[in-house]
Amino acid sequence: MQINLLFSIDDKFVEQMKTTLFSIYQNADHNHHFTVYVLQKKLLKRSKTIKEFCHLWGMNYVPLVIGDDPLFEQAPISARYPETIYYRLMVHKYLPENVDKILYLDADILCINDFSSLYELELKGYLYAAASHKNLTNMTKMINQVRLKTYEAEGYYNSGVLLINVKKARDEVHAEDIFRFIQENQYNLLLPDQDILNGLYGNKILSIPDEIYNYDVRKNATYDTISMGKWDLGWIIRNSVFLHFCGKDKPWEDKYRGRYAALYKYFWYKVMNE
């Protein structure tokens, strides 16, 4: 099976992305063929390093260099709204025409099981598939719905794992809609690109279980409570696919002491010593 992966990084996050890719390779069916697309304003200085690393594991690396695209001349751009926030939502503009589906991943994600079942999802009329984290209270959920006017959406979706229906996005996701949404809601947006995703397309997102595909490692107690103890460490190791190291504390830092620190560092040091 052909699997298209998407990242959006700068040169500071190359090792993190390599760790994510290595964890994918270790847990994927080796009959899959991976193409790794990386969104970037300018060609990354470490592009050669990425290409060699991908080649080592039988993956194809394709840089998506945006450059000075006139599309963004009319975009609201500032320190809060850098040009890069638009790249992921507009990725269909830069991908080859034969790419109909792609899986976007944040570079602070670790893959611990095969994710074929996610990639094979039939999106049909949906633009995206994503997970809504279960740590949101009903009040927080209601505030997000009012803030973004997403009353029909099932929840507030995390954009760190995002299966994109590229074929449908080419017809329905337009830059002018995104720019207008920012201008009309600029004072209500807390996480600009994620808020845009939810505000404009929240009712076109297929919900997937976060305990499987976007496990927030900060929320162990919440998951324990929701599952009445079922989703313990053993269950997570056997069933979860993507561990997402959300927040300020990151597992590649020496001071990190989270439950999954050792697991992440195992992959991290393997990559660093390749």
Automatic annotation (TrEMBL):
Keywords noted in UniProt: Glycosyltransferase, Metal-binding, Transferase
Entry's Gene Ontology molecular function annotations: glycosyltransferase activity; metal ion binding
PANTHER family on file: GLYCOSYLTRANSFERASE 8 DOMAIN-CONTAINING PROTEIN, LIPOPOLYSACCHARIDE 1,3-GALACTOSYLTRANSFERASE
Name of the molecule in the record: Lipopolysaccharide biosynthesis glycosyltransferase
Native source organism of the sequence: Tetragenococcus koreensis
